[in-house]
C-alpha cells in the first residue's frame, strides 16, 4: 500500500502546534526550581526549596487533600448518574433519548461562569454554599457529560443480542446489567471517571462562586496565591498538578489499549 | 438430561404490525411435544418475527401463544424458560466456555457443585468437554455453535428456539452439524423450533415444516408431504425446483383430469378435479421425468430440443424447449445416462400422471 509522506509544510505546522501546546507548560518546570524568592527563572542554581514549602505547608496540603476528596465524591456522582443515563438512553433508544443525551452535554456547552451564577442562587437557598457537599455536587453534575460520552461510545459497540441472550436465559434486568453489560463497558466507565476526576480536580470558576472560606480547593489556592503574592511555590504546585493529570491520562490511554486488544 | 419430556406450543392467530407494515399476518401453528418444527421462508417472510414472539422479545399485535395450554403471550422472556440459539450465537465474549454454559444456572442461583456437574454434562453432550477454559473467540465457528447449543440446553428448557443456527458456517460443516443437531433432538426428546431460509436444512432436520411468505403461513406438513404435494406455486418453487405447466381442463375422470395447452394433452392424478374449462397450473419436479427410448410409451410424453445443459457431478440438468410449455428443466443421473447431452439434441420426455401436482398460482 502507498503511504503519503507528510510534506514540509505539514511537518512544520505540526511542530509549531506541538510547541504552542507544550511551551507554557514546560516553562513552569524551570520556574518551579528557581533559587529566588519570587516567580522567576533560576539564576545561580536549581533548588527544590519551593517543593519543600508546598509539601510541608499545612495550607497547601489541606487544599490538596480537600480537592482530592471533592474530586473523588464528584467522580462517584458523575460515574453513577452518567452511566445509568447512558444505559437508559441506549436501552430505550428513541428520538427523545437522543435529546436527553444532547441535554446531558449542556454543562460542557454553557459557559461555566453562567452555570456558576445559577448555582450560586440555588445553593444559597439550600444552604450548600461553601460546603463540601455543594462543591462535590456541582462538580459531579458538570462531570456527567464526560461519562455519558464515553459510556455511550462503549455501548454503541455492545452487541444487543448479548442482552437478549441473557434475558432469554432467565436473567433479570439487574443480573443482565451486572454480569453482561457492565463488564463489557467497564473501560468506558473508567475512562469517563478519569475525565470527570480531572474536571473536578482543576475546576476554578464554579468554586470561586460557591465556596469562600471552608472549602478552599487547590485551584482556588493557586488563584489566590497569584493574586496576592507571586510565590514560586505556585509553580511547584503547578508542576505537581501537571504530573498528576498526565499520570491519569496515561492510565486512560493504557485502559483504552487494553480494551482494543 | 435424558428422559425429559417435551412441551407443546400453540400459536393462535398471531399478527405483528410495525406501523403500516405487516410482518406476520394471522398465523396459527401447533408444535407437538418433542417435535422439531422448522419455520422456513425467504428473508422478510416473518419467520424470525414469529420466533421472537415465541421467545418473548417481540410483543404480538394480535393473537396468543400458549405453552401446554397456558397463555404466555404477556410473559417477559426471562420468565419463559426457553433455550435459544441466536444467529451469530451471542456468546458472552468476556466469559470462558464453561462460564457461558453456566450462565443460565448462575441466574437460577444453583449451588456450585450442581452447577459444575450440569455444565460438564452439557459440554459432554456437545463434545466440548476439553474446551471449558477457552474464551469463545479462541474457538472455531462450529465449536462456538456447539457452545451456544450447550448453553441453551443446560437448564433443561421447556423449548429450544434456534434462529438460523447454521447459517454462519461453511457448507461442509453445516451438513455435519445438521446431522449432530438431528441426533441431539432424537436423544433428548425436547421440542425444537428452528428458523431457516435453507430448504435443504429444513427438509433434513424437521419433523414438520411451516412455509411462510410475506408474513403469511402458506403450507405446513411433514417434509415429504410438502415436497411431494406442494399446495401453491410458491411452495413448489421454494422447496426444491419445479417446472410449471399452464393449461385448460379438458377432461375430468375418476382420480384425475387432463389439461390441454395448444395441441398437447397432459393427464394428472388428483383427488378432486377442478371444473371443466378452468385454467390450472401443474407442478412437475425435474427428477420425475424420464427420457423415453424409441417406441417406449408413458402416460404423458412430449418431444423437445436441448437448449442448454450443465454437468453437476451426480447428475445432468437439461433445459429442454418443448412446444406449448416453453422450457422444461429435467435432471438425469450421470451414471449410465442414456444420452450424451449436447445443444440441439432432440429427445422425448415422459412422466406418469402421478408425477405432476395441481398447485394454486400464487405468484405475484
What is the level-2 CATH architecture name of the largest domain in chain B?
3-Layer(aba) Sandwich
Low-confidence stretches of chain B: none
| Residue share in helix of chain A | over 70%
CATH class of the largest domain in chain B: Alpha Beta
What is the terminal-to-terminal distance of chain A?
A: 24 Å
Secondary structure tally, helices of chain A = 12
How does the major sheet of chain B shape up? 6 strands, mixed
Largest interface: A-B, 17 and 27 residues
Topology pattern of chain B, helix = H, strand = E: EEEHEEEHHHEHEHEEHHEEEEEEEEEE
Protein name (chain A): ABC transporter permease
Domain ABC transmembrane type-1 (chain A): 64-252
Pfam family, one (chain A): BPD_transp_1
Membrane topology (chain A): Multi-pass membrane protein
Question: Would you give an account of this structure?
Answer:
The complex is a heterodimer of chains A (261) and B (364). Chain A is mainly α and 261 residues long. Chain A has twelve helices and no strands. Chain A has a domain of 168 residues: MetI-like (MetI-like fold). Chain A is 78% helix and 0% strand. In chain A, helix 3 packs antiparallel against helix 9 and helix 8 runs antiparallel to helix 9. Chain A starts with 7 loop residues before the first helix and ends with a helix. Chain B has a six-stranded mixed beta sheet, sandwiched between helices. A five-stranded antiparallel beta sheet of chain B has the order 13-12-11-14-20. In chain B, helix 2 crosses helix 3, helix 2 runs parallel beside helix 4 and helix 3 packs across helix 4. Chains A and B meet through helix 8 and helix 9 of A and strand 6 and helix 2 of B.
Amino acid at each position: 500500500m502507498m503511504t503519503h509522506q507528510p510534506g514540509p509544510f505539514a511537518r512544520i505546522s505540526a511542530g509549531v502546534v506541538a510547541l504552542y501546546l507544550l511551551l507554557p507548560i514546560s516553562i513552569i518546570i524551570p520556574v518551579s526550581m528557581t533559587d529566588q524568592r519570587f516567580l522567576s527563572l533560576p539564576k545561580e542554581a536549581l533548588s527544590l526549596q519551593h517543593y519543600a514549602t508546598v509539601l510541608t505547608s499545612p495550607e497547601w496540603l489541606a487544599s490538596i487533600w480537600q480537592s482530592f476528596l471533592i474530586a473523588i465524591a464528584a467522580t462517584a456522582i458523575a460515574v453513577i448518574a452518567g452511566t445509568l443515563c447512558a444505559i437508559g438512553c441506549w436501552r430505550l433508544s428513541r428520538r427523545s433519548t437522543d435529546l436527553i443525551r444532547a441535554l446531558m452535554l449542556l454543562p460542557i456547552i454553557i459557559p461555566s461562569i453562567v452555570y456558576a451564577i445559577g448555582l450560586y442562587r440555588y445553593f444559597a437557598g439550600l444552604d450548600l454554599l461553601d460546603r463540601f457537599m455543594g462543591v462535590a455536587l456541582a462538580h459531579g453534575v458538570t462531570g456527567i457529560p464526560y461519562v455519558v460520552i464515553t459510556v455511550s461510545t462503549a455501548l454503541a459497540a455492545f452487541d444487543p443480542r448479548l442482552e437478549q441472550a441473557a434475558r432469554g436465559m432467565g436473567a433479570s434486568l439487574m443480573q443482565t446489567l451486572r454480569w453482561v453489560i457492565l463488564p463489557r463497558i467497564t473501560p468506558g466507565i473508567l475512562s469517563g471517571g478519569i475525565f470527570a476526576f480531572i474536571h473536578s480536580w482543576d475546576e476554578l470558576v464554579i468554586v470561586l462562586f460557591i465556596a469562600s472560606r471552608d472549602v478552599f480547593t487547590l485551584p482556588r489556592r493557586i488563584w489566590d496565591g497569584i493574586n496576592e503574592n507571586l510565590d514560586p511555590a505556585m509553580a511547584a504546585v503547578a508542576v505537581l498538578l501537571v504530573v498528576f493529570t498526565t499520570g491519569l491520562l496515561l492510565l486512560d490511554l493504557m485502559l483504552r489499549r487494553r480494551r482494543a486488544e | 438430561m435424558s428422559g425429559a419430556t417435551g412441551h407443546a406450543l400453540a400459536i393462535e392467530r398471531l399478527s405483528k404490525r410495525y406501523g403500516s407494515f405487516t410482518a406476520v399476518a394471522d398465523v396459527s401453528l401447533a408444535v407437538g411435544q418433542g417435535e422439531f418444527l422448522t419455520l422456513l421462508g425467504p428473508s422478510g417472510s416473518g419467520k424470525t418475527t414469529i420466533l421472537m414472539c415465541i421467545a418473548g422479545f417481540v410483543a404480538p399485535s394480535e393473537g396468543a401463544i400458549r405453552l401446554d395450554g397456558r397463555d404466555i403471550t404477556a410473559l417477559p422472556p426471562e420468565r419463559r424458560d426457553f433455550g435459544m440459539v441466536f444467529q451469530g450465537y451471542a456468546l458472552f465474549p468476556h466469559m470462558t466456555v464453561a462460564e457461558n454454559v453456566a450462565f443460565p444456572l448462575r441466574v437460577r442461583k444453583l449451588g456450585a457443585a450442581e452447577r459444575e456437574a450440569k455444565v460438564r454434562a452439557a459440554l459432554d453432550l456437545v463434545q466440548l468437554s476439553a474446551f471449558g477454559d477457552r474464551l469463545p473467540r479462541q474457538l472455531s465457528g462450529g465449536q462456538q455453535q456447539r457452545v451456544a447449543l450447550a448453553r441453551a440446553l443446560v437448564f433443561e428448557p421447556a423449548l429450544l428456539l434456534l434462529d438460523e443456527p447454521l447459517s454462519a458456517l461453511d457448507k461442509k460443516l453445516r451438513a455435519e452439524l445438521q446431522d449432530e443437531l438431528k441426533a441431539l433432538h432424537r436423544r433428548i426428546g425436547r421440542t425444537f423450533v428452528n428458523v431457516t431460509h435453507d430448504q435443504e436444512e429444513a427438509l433434513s432436520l424437521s419433523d414438520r415444516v411451516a412455509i411462510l411468505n410475506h408474513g403469511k403461513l402458506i403450507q405446513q406438513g411433514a417434509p415429504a408431504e410438502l415436497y411431494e404435494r406442494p399446495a401453491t406455486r410458491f411452495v413448489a418453487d421454494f422447496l426444491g425446483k419445479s417446472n410449471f405447466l399452464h393449461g385448460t381442463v379438458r377432461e375430468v375422470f375418476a382420480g384425475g383430469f387432463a389439461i390441454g395447452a395448444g395441441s398437447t394433452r397432459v393427464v394428472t392424478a388428483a383427488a378432486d378435479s377442478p371444473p371443466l374449462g378452468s385454467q390450472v397450473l401443474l407442478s412437475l419436479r425435474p427428477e420425475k421425468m424420464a427420457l423415453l427410448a424409441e417406441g417406449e410409451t408413458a402416460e404423458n410424453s412430449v418431444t423437445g430440443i436441448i437448449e442448454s445443459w450443465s454437468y453437476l457431478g451426480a447428475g445432468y440438468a437439461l433445459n429442454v424447449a418443448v412446444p406449448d410449455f416453453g422450457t422444461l428443466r429435467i435432471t438425469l443421473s450421470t451414471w449410465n445416462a442414456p444420452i450424451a447431452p449436447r445443444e440441439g439434441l432432440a429427445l422425448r420426455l415422459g412422466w406418469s400422471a402421478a408425477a405432476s401436482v395441481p398447485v394454486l398460482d400464487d405468484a405475484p
